[in-house]
Amino acid sequence: MNLLYTLDLLGTAAFAASGALAAIRRDMDIFGVMVLGLVTATGGGTLRDLLLGDTPPFIFKDETYLYLSIAISLLVFLFHHTLSRLTHPLTFFDAVGLGTFVVIGTSKALEFQFGFVGSVMAGVMTATAGGMIRDMLSNRVPMVLQKEVYASACLVGGILLTLLHRSGMPRTFALLASAFTVITLRLLAVRFNWSLPRARYGNAQH
Amino acid sequence: MNLLYTLDLLGTAAFAASGALAAIRRDMDIFGVMVLGLVTATGGGTLRDLLLGDTPPFIFKDETYLYLSIAISLLVFLFHHTLSRLTHPLTFFDAVGLGTFVVIGTSKALEFQFGFVGSVMAGVMTATAGGMIRDMLSNRVPMVLQKEVYASACLVGGILLTLLHRSGMPRTFALLASAFTVITLRLLAVRFNWSLPRARYGNAQH
Amino acid sequence: MNLLYTLDLLGTAAFAASGALAAIRRDMDIFGVMVLGLVTATGGGTLRDLLLGDTPPFIFKDETYLYLSIAISLLVFLFHHTLSRLTHPLTFFDAVGLGTFVVIGTSKALEFQFGFVGSVMAGVMTATAGGMIRDMLSNRVPMVLQKEVYASACLVGGILLTLLHRSGMPRTFALLASAFTVITLRLLAVRFNWSLPRARYGNAQH
């Protein structure tokens, strides 16, 4: 499906840019910028493929993802001052990546006969694990565990796709509807500054 | 073996609670609480299965572990104030998990024809890697590397089980004796506040 | 090839020592020292084998690596005061490990029919991922992402080996020439204090 592949590459580029920017903010050298770009863009899908037992992971079967992530990281390294003014388009393409990665991950797990929770997890992981590794390498608590409706948009998309798949919807429709739902939720969350509930932990030292 | 499966689920629940509590202490949102609960309870066994080449990992073959971990994490999210008063039962069930996870991991590696060190490592990893990932996601040095006789109880259990296995003991006896040893050592360590030796590093800045 | 295996063990020992020293600096107990020694020495190759789908990873097929890493870690635990005076030999053997790990990783990926970027990545990862996990367990930003020409020496070695392999050079020559190049570059970088360019991020708070 060519549209999905195109969206996948757009998302990969946006995720690579976000990783490269994080590396620059942490004062990493050019190697660090490439590693964080690569890991953010491809880490989630790679972890998913390891868990599915589908080795080698997708990035080693179609090196387009690697070339694209490295190229974007180098561009960000050179032109990050310009880029930091482009937060609007970056947020948009990041949301595209989020939606696309979720549906690719969930649908692949469904093909591998994973159960309900496992398939949703595979989708959420595809979309969020790269960013978590990026944050762990940056010595921070992963943003996705603390802030904004980022992961929940993924959860909704993974659950929706699993339900549509089980109810026998045509695959293309199910994929696009789920991806579109994630992208819309994510953009609304950014626009209206939604966030998830937290347990109030009080003033205790921790 | 039904007793071992029961202990395994008890341990999974205790580990999930410990992960969820850590997430609440770090002010994570409800998604973070679920992720840390899941990772703490199932991360060690998942990593073990990846290393054994037994994919997909156990959690995707029997989703009970996933449902249980998520349910416990949500309960902790809702009732953590009550829970923080239950340190005694939590410590007890955590020790049960430790013993059970070690013997499950070691015995699985022995079945896969791993050598002595590899089998012990598989057991220790099953019991401790989930907590290490929890601490890395919380941006802390893993507790198990710094404090208390936690990992060494696992080491003793893994070594004991490997020796009993090699000496031809009946499997059930070997498993239960080893798990019981780990649980006892762990509870004694908590009770008497044992800790492992450290190299004295002096006052150097680091 | 016996020379390569000897260099591999030398490198493993040097990497284990670096991991054990990092653990001591972070005030870890004896278990932490063993874990960081093991992870630094064998983590990169283990991750590579997971990504290649070659499970169980090499350390479980030939336990020499495990015994060696544990023994070195315990020696470092006991004699770290002496060891900290031996920075010159340690740097040398660490460079040997770097060169050897890169060529082992890259050549294994080439055997598994990986593409250009994938093979270079496999080599760089074999040499650097163990140290990255060591730093993540120590709650620091991985040194390799920030400082010195460490990873780029690996990149050069991996690229050189892939080119020599494709141009049909005899395997032994290609391996030794590439390893020697990495070792030389690394030692020159230490000697002359080379470092990679960074993007200037300005004074912004982050």
UniProtKB/TrEMBL annotation, chains A, B, C:
Transmembrane segments: 65-83, 90-110, 116-137, 149-166, 172-190
Protein keywords: Cell membrane, Membrane, Transmembrane, Transmembrane helix
Signal peptide: none
Subcellular location: Cell membrane
Top-level lineage group: Bacteria
Membrane topology: Multi-pass membrane protein
Glycine transporter domain mapped to chain residues: 6-81, 92-165
Location (main, coarse): membrane
PANTHER family: INNER MEMBRANE PROTEIN (PTHR30506), UPF0126 INNER MEMBRANE PROTEIN YADS-RELATED (PTHR30506:SF3)
Record family assignment: Belongs to the UPF0126 family.
Name assigned to this protein: Glycine transporter domain-containing protein
